[in-house]
Design brief:
Oligomer: homotetramer
CATH architecture of the largest domain in chain A: Up-down Bundle
CATH superfamily of the largest domain in chain A: Butyryl-CoA Dehydrogenase, subunit A, domain 3
Order of helices and strands of chain A: HHHHHHEEEEEEEEHEEHHHHH
Radius of gyration of chain A: 22 Å
Largest interface: A-D, 57 and 57 residues
Shape of chain A: globular
Largest sheet of chain A: 4 strands, mixed
Strand content of chain A: 15-25%
């Protein structure tokens, strides 16, 4: 047993940390200013600073660190990447700067694993190069998508093409003008066994029949220009070569995609929780009430301590899940991944809520970014499967240990 | 002991309910559409529907129901008004439609209690008539305003005038173009005993030196055109007649103001929680997952039951506090008011969080109003004193029961 | 709406309070000393003080206050009795002193409502007179008794008799040598519709075939001489006249019994929570740590305040449920009774846990009675239906409001 | 980073596991039976099975595994011992069987670190050999011992002796007839600086003036023959050579002792939580309610999953603290030790409470050991410093990171 980060991990931590100190935190402010300067009608334009920073990060080799395969980047193990990802979770634009942002990472994962050489050349390469961005069209407004078998989008073979009809929402990133490719989940055969009805298919964002209906604010934030979009697919026609892996194998792909995607979110969530704790502590140190500094009021001692404890525990579980992905594989690490998917946002939201309380009115407004982080992390209790579904999966493992009935 | 609402209360409940069914719920949608139609640059304009509805409500005598004194309206007791206020809490625009909205009610309370006839004629009457709106300038960004003795705004006598300097924020409602008068808390004598330094003074919104610096979004919502503003007061000069009650009596006024204001918020909060529970239940009834309707998953049975239990308890405590204000007076009801100030938002936030979870992605976006309600109610754990301060006050009562040291 | 206790309630509160101050609190200590003096082999004997105090209470007319029907006692309404019951909840022996103790009250209720004149003469009258005690044999160790349809005890007609076979546990009070009569729930017809299989029948404690197998400690408390017994019924034969109400009507009786029984427990639970809060406050006032009295540490301000808030809310809900029983009947008050059945123990356990923490090591041992109260109240989350079953029932009401499917 | 247990750890896990399967679980039942057979007057006698099992364990080299120094046993690192300790936490008698039980381990630690050769020969060696047992006399009933500077026991030099006067309680293990030596904390100089007043001194259990006043039950459990005793020291005279380390160095010793002691408790607590989860799962698998197995009710899916998540996280934090003790030392690991001291009992109590609920009435009684485990672990939130004190310490570290004032 060894809780120390590896030399390689520490090296990347140091380099990413230095890069962030030098460029990214300041870049985040520039990004905000540039975005503000576009005015209300320019919210869906991309502030130019982002591409400048991407170029710099790429030049320094801090690029595509998310994938363990050295073919695609430095090839950090999940365990080595986890602390790096945590670091990028401290700053809004950081993941994109290093080309490690959702949903691109998950979509690249799919293309790496299941894409044909042609599909990889056309879509994976530009994603790896940071030239385009992508979206994942899964959730549908009309059904409980927590149970993915409910999905209704229709993918029908028609000669050499597939024709797609459906309505998707929470297609995050589809608001970005650089978003060029969608991975769409739908049903190719509603008469097949429950888990063999679904397929995934590649749909270019500019395909005829693709209509972005609206953006979905998260609490009051539009998250522009990234955005979470509602998209109607009306008789969208793509060549049959766009099918991923084969008809009826959508569930298999979904499984392969979600593990890494979930854990990256969790790693960054730990980083966000650390920032919240730091801000809470700093705030408490600077204010007085009822005759003494607020940090000396014991209610805050308790809350700060609980935040620290919870963060430490959530981090360790995240690291362990990452290590298991490296050592026994994503599938065998499924229960642990589900656990942190539940635990990390829960911990971070609790810390954030206390941090908000510590800041008084400043906590709920924009000045410290706490309310925005809260809103953003609240969605993680729903995205990629709500807590209840993950808890269901975790419990099944426990029940199976003691029964062949469960 | 009698838990039944009085005949008078039931009569007003029926009339307000009918009025809301007929005009207000639909009006709320019209309001949103009109506001949207103004476009991004018109966010701080007031949708015309609101004044139309106010005129109708006034015509039907559903006006100024918030105050027990029949001089100012129908003169409902607090206990009779509480269920009516709860009803208005179900709908965003309702409180204003009936001229029962914060912060006007609290400000009118101050003017009724402590205003001179001249002050009443100039500011109270137009407020009672719904012709103008008002703001309350208390909290300051630089200090922990949870301890009101920290407040730094300077009010200095200069001949026949007072000259005011300071920076205020969370001045809710000051974004509204109809907002014409501010009640400002500041210090007239920093050498006086701790609770005799503060004074309250009337400052017209258009006074020279008043500068609205920015609006403070709440979890991304600007709450326009109402708004929560940051305001700089720079050498603002008002005649000495604008002083309320007398120099050094600001704390006394604050006490008198806050009781009713807090309880009205709590009453409406119960209404908001009821709406959230209703929405949660309806949603659960309409979706299926894993082979059965979601409402049949026992985790939701527990959450719905807990919501119902918590709402019932919080409502009863609110009603009791209202009844005590009627029977033993606002001062003797102080502990109970503090209790619901803590309990009501806490309960409502818990119900809302579960309701969000029940709605999946729809919960965090605008479609069901849940995220917005969450954001708005989260501020109630800070506004008019954070939970910690109220708990401190409640605990002091308990400690005093068993000690003369505490 | 009127939150004031009635004059009659206040009169009984004053009289019961005075009687407790004069006799019962001291009696409680005498009871403990007498019980201790019996030594380990005398744990199931009854300390004589209890009958002395019963005689006194009866003489002062503070007797059988639990039932609203004046035929059986003073005939206090449920709402008037609730605060009195709360008062008796402050002291271990008090309920019995006033002949208002479980499970006798519930069993008397059954005999009042469903007993024949002969059954009433033989068993109800001595119970009303405090001459005997009783037990209720419902729960069974082999099945999930949370779903009462699972109950397996067999009641078979045999000529002019019924023959009963089964195993019961948590038969509280059956340890007391004065316990002379059991009400037993079992099945007379396993082929009948689900809710018509059960019957209730009277079984004298000394009937042949009744075997008390053991007592069940609660945490480590034997609760002697009351006790919670496991009882085997082996070919126990009773005359057919012992059947209550008629074969197949056991569920109906259970419903009629449980409402009042549950609410009495809740009323007393509020009293127990009040005592815990008092003890917590007193302890905090007397100790110092880290340079100041512990009550000045703000973590305790929060906990004391939360205890006060929770107790107030739980009390109000209990009172409302009682008032509904008086005004609309036990059946219509079912949801409210379920709510307090869940809420009251939860609140009391939270307060007790904090009180334990406030007392340090003294909290978990016998000196302040806190651990014992905790153990005892923890069973209330299971007795008379576990929380989950009550929450299920409460949620059904909510679902039904918005659907005819639920 | 490596989450795998070392080969050495796995070896000991396997051997201890096999030994437990073969001897200890069954031994636990024998122990209970032998103890019961002593009758009420024999509760403070030690069932003979324990010494038989100790001899066996010693023979197999599964002895004194708690200490990293190979001079005293196999010399497992803390990280290697942690999973072994967890295993022993599954069974009541296991820690003692392997001579790894509190408070002996902590007391041996003190003697190893601070004992003179003579002290070691007289007391350490027999403890290492399992020939005697020991107690630690720290907490006092009259003062808030959470702040150890409050301690009042007087240790006064008198010629070649020290004379000790004071009252101690929660002297765990002092009920055991084999308990021969106490380590006593007291004050040698009340005028010295706050943390230099205290000393620790060795007091033989049979010294004149030592009077065991009573045993303190924990939630009704006497924990005999171990016991938690209240002890009066009245003019107890010991030779000056019994002083540990030197006058005024009691705090230093307390610091050195508590780290390992705390973490051993936490390790075992994880084991107890695992057992509770197992029992909960097994129970849920075997019962039906409302038409389906209880484990299929989704409320239990959530609770089981939360238990699993919380246990995993608490275990990882415990392991990390152990690893830090090995790598950076007990002092540098102080914050982490404080964290698990708070987290582990909290997690275990939550799991136990749910497990109790899952078992219905069987949960609160003796049949499954859950209530007893709850009672025992509840004391851990108080023993060796209450949660509040550890949280205070943890928060100080956080505040210091961002300030030199804190």
């Amino acid at each position: 047993m060894d809780f120390a980060y590896s030399a390689r991990c520490n090296d990347y931590l140091a380099r990413v940390g230095a890069f962030m100190d030098k460029h990214v935190y300041e870049g985040d402010e520039i990004y905000e200013r540039q975005h503000q300067a576009f005015g209300p009608e320019g919210r869906w334009k991309v502030p130019p600073i982002i591409e400048e920073l991407k170029a710099k990060a790429k030049a320094e080799g801090l690029w595509n660190m998310f994938h363990p395969n050295p073919k695609f980047g430095p090839g950090l193990s999940n365990a080595d990447y986890a602390p790096v990802a945590e670091l990028t979770g401290r700053c809004h634009i950081a993941p994109e700067v290093f080309n490690c942002a959702a949903p691109d990472t998950g979509n690249m994962e799919v293309l790496m694993k299941y894409g044909t050489p042609a599909q990889q050349e056309e879509w994976l390469q530009p994603l790896l190069d940071g030239k385009i961005r992508s979206a994942f069209l899964m959730t549908e407004p009309q059904v409980a998508s927590s149970d993915a078998t409910n999905i209704e989008t229709d993918i029908r073979r028609d000669g050499g093409d597939y024709v797609i009809n459906g309505r998707k929402w929470w297609s995050s990133g589809a608001g970005d003008p650089r978003c060029k490719i969608y991975i769409v989940m739908g049903k190719t055969d509603k008469t097949a066994p429950t888990h063999a009805q679904q397929s995934m298919i590649l749909v270019p964002a500019n395909a005829k029949g693709v209509k972005i209906v609206r953006h979905l604010p998260v609490f009051g934030y539009d998250d522009a220009p990234h955005g979470h979009m509602e998209i109607v697919l009306e008789n969208v026609r793509v060549p049959k070569e766009n099918m991923l892996l084969g008809e009826g194998r959508g569930f298999e792909i979904a499984q392969g995609r979600l593990g890494p995607g979930r854990i990256h979110h969790c790693m960054r969530t730990i980083g966000a929780a650390e920032v919240a704790l730091e801000k809470m502590v700093k705030r408490l140190l600077t204010r007085e009430a009822f005759g003494k500094p607020i940090y000396k009021h014991s209610i805050w001692e308790q809350r700060v301590a609980e935040a620290r404890i919870d963060i430490e525990m959530a981090r360790l579980l995240t690291l362990k899940a990452a290590w298991m992905m490296d050592t026994v594989g994503n599938k065998a690490a499924q229960a642990e991944i589900a656990m942190i998917k539940v635990a990390a946002p829960r911990v971070a939201l609790r810390v954030l809520d206390d941090a908000i309380q510590a800041h008084g009115g400043a906590g709920v407004t924009t000045d410290f970014g706490l309310a925005r982080a809260y809103a953003s992390l609240r969605t993680l209790r729903l995205a990629d499967g709500p807590d209840e579904v993950h808890c269901r999966a975790i419990s099944k493992v426990e029940f199976k240990k003691h029964s062949n009935a469960a």
